[in-house]
Amino acid sequence: MQVERRGCIGAAGRYRFASVAIRRRLGGCFGLFDITMGAMAREANTMIKENPIKTTLAAGKASVGGWLNLGSPLAAEVLGGIGVPWMTVDCEHTPFDMNLTAHTFRAIEARGAIPLVRAWDHDVSTISRLLDAGAWGVVIPHVSTPEQAATFASATRYPPRGTRSVGTSRCITLGDTNEYYNVFNDRVLCIPQIEDMEGIGNAQAIAEIPDVDIGFLGPNDLSRSMGAAMGSDAHEKALADFREGCAAAGKPCGIPVNSGAIAKQRIAEGFSFISIANDLKLMREKADIEFEGFLE
């Protein structure tokens, strides 16, 4: 059967196909169908939904998502396909460039999940470009002071609330242009990542900054900066101090973990924003299991 591409509808960009033969039989009906479906698609695309991460955390529940290190949009589709509700594209430690990052955001969105991103530096223009590409939140690594956090929080919001530049980019396709500019200040997430003892000491002050939405730990870099092993008493105390600082500021706190079992432990301790492993680790761990006994 011959098919003809007739445009796309819906957030996932699914294509409608119609055979030439059927088009001949139905004649003018297709025009009405196209107009109706086009109007429905445009109407649906004008509304930007609530950020479900914010909704979940505001309800006092834990929000658990994934992390992407492979540089593969397909990996995002796989995780989204099993229902992972959000994924962070790691631009700090991976091969992601801006173009691949935007494609990965599309893959996340296509599965109904929320795309977050970790920035590769502290340049506010980096934050702006990542948000313009379609991120719903930015993790900023190596934040140690409230002054840094205030700069980054401001960079995630449009004036007069913040300093984010207004420009035409992919982000405005998430909904009606004016709708995006008018509502996204309340949808976006600013997530400073604390990774040293200076940041631990400033945890409450960082979390108290307006428009800092979630405090997030970097336990591996924290361990290195402390000279203390992961899981040691000193390291666990630093994690507890961070968690208590965020709680005192009335903000949720998060941490990356390597397994679902550890995620449950951290949630019981009071962490509520959890990323489980990453696509690279999940692939390697599964490969280690399945290839055991077959490799020299």
Q: Could you please describe the fold and organization of this structure?
A:
- The chain has 296 residues and is α/β, with parallel strands linked by helices.
- It has 2 domains: 3-45; 52-286, Phosphoenolpyruvate-binding domains (TIM Barrel, Alpha-Beta Barrel), CATH 3.20.20.
- It contains 14 helices and 10 strands.
- An 8-stranded parallel beta barrel has the order 3-4-5-6-7-8-9-10, surrounded by 7 helices. It has a two-stranded antiparallel sheet with strand order 1-2.
- Helix 4 (73-81) packs parallel to helix 5.
- The longest helix has 17 residues, at 29-45.
- The chain is globular.
- The chain starts with a strand and ends in a 5-residue tail after the last helix.
- The relative contact order is 0.11.
- Residues 1-46 have low confidence and may be disordered.
Descriptive tags:
disordered N terminus; 2 domains; 296 residues; TIM Barrel; alpha/beta
Structure at a glance:
By secondary structure, this protein is an alpha/beta fold. Helix content is 46%, strand content 17%. α4 (73-81) packs parallel to α5.
What's the arrangement of secondary structure elements?
Elements lengths: L2 E7 L4 E6 H7 L2 H17 L6 H7 L4 E6 L4 H9 L4 E5 L7 H13 L3 E5 L5 H9 L4 E4 L5 H10 L21 H7 L5 E6 L2 H5 L1 H5 L7 E3 L1 H8 L6 H17 L3 E5 L2 H10 L3 E4 L2 H13 L5
Helix pairs in contact: 4-5
Distance between the termini: 51 Å
CATH homologous superfamily title of the largest domain = Phosphoenolpyruvate-binding domains
Question: Strand arrangement, largest sheet?
Answer: 3-4-5-6-7-8-9-10
What series of H and E elements makes up the topology? EEHHHEHEHEHEHHEHHEHHEHEH
- At the first level of CATH, what is the class of the largest domain? Alpha Beta
Structural class designation: alpha/beta
Give the proportion of residues in helices. Answer: 40-55%
What is the arithmetic mean of pLDDT? 88
The tally of strands reads: 10
